[in-house]
Design a protein that fits this description.
Layout lengths: L13 E2 L8 E3 L9 E4 L6 H9 L8 H8 L9 H8 L9 E7 L2 E6 L23 H14 L7 E6 L20 E2 L9 E2 L13 E2 L5 E2 L2 H12 L23 H11 L1 H7 L8
Parallel strand pairs: 7-8
Antiparallel strand pairs: 1-5, 2-3, 4-5, 4-6, 9-10
């Protein structure tokens, strides 16, 4: 844990306040200017607040996995040198790397992979470095934790990589604890510590719309909209189609994209079986 009175890189971190544009959803989709009017998590189900209250006194099924994931550092702890080693893996890991600190309930973020371009601003929008990829949604995830558990999150200093692939391989020849690195995926061959992928809540141009043209936020609310929309539509009259998006010919990831191309070929396979299908 980092002592709040011994801030490291105090001049290097950008404070992200809860009223910053990084924490607010644009009022009008597609606008990059400062027209923000709603907290992203404000539209979530009341279940989230109820669940957060329960977590104050009850352990979840994930607790044993958390203990297992953190076991390599149980005896030695996580040192400042280990964090700096993780930060310097920006040329090894696949995606952006953030180093973040939580001190007295406030979030400070350093965009490691864009250090040559300066500190990214808290305002999102076209042309702003903070709007790149998963960076803003990772910030939203951390800010939501602080919002849901006020005063309960201890001071900490951590590093997270935001790529699609694992980064910290298990190395039997390494002496001591592995590099501490949060990420969005892991496996039995890697030490990456998994955190929820908030980008699923951030695809604003893919939101379902309610009858009044407002985006429907959260899985529960979207499920209700779909059920109302299709409750009177028989399955036989629906088009047998699914929507998937993503690159299929990225030279950096030939193995991944070979699998993606197999998905793209699904319409042809379905058509051969007599189903109506078309790629989108």
């Amino acid at each position: 844990m980092l002592d709040a009175s011994a801030r490291i890189y105090s001049a290097g971190f950008v404070q992200v306040a809860k009223n910053s544009h990084a924490y607010l959803r644009p009022k009008f989709l597609g606008h990059s200017e400062a027209t923000f009017g709603a907290n992203v998590s404000a539209g979530y189900s009341e279940y989230i607040a109820q669940h957060a209250e329960e977590l104050k006194t009850q352990k979840t099924f994930m607790h044993e996995f958390i203990e297992s994931d953190l076991a390599p550092w149980k005896d030695s702890g996580i040192t400042l040198e280990a964090l700096e080693e993780a930060e310097n893996m920006y040329d090894i890991c696949d995606g952006d790397i953030l180093r973040f600190q939580i001190i007295s309930g406030r979030l400070y973020v350093y965009h490691v992979t864009s250090r040559g371009l300066g500190w990214y601003p808290s305002q999102l929008g076209e042309g702003h470095l903070a709007a790149r990829g998963r960076v803003p949604h990772t910030m939203l995830m951390l800010l939501d934790v602080l919002r849901l558990f006020p005063g309960q999150i201890p001071d900490l200093d951590a590093v997270m990589q935001l790529g699609d692939f694992n980064c910290v391989e298990r190395n039997a020849s390494r002496r001591g604890a592995p590099v501490p690195m949060f990420g969005y995926s892991t496996s039995e061959d890697y030490h990456d510590l998994v955190l929820p992928d908030f980008t699923y809540y951030g695809h604003e141009y893919d939101y379902l719309m309610d009858p009044w043209g407002n985006p429907v936020i959260g899985w529960d609310a979207q499920r209700e909209v779909l059920m109302r929309k299709y409750e009177g539509v028989p399955l036989s009259s629906r088009l047998p189609q699914a929507l998937w998006r993503g690159r299929t010919r990225d030279p950096m990831y030939p193995h991944r994209d070979a699998l993606r191309r197999a998905f793209v070929a699904c319409p042809e396979v379905l058509a051969a079986g007599g189903a109506r299908a078309r790629p989108r």
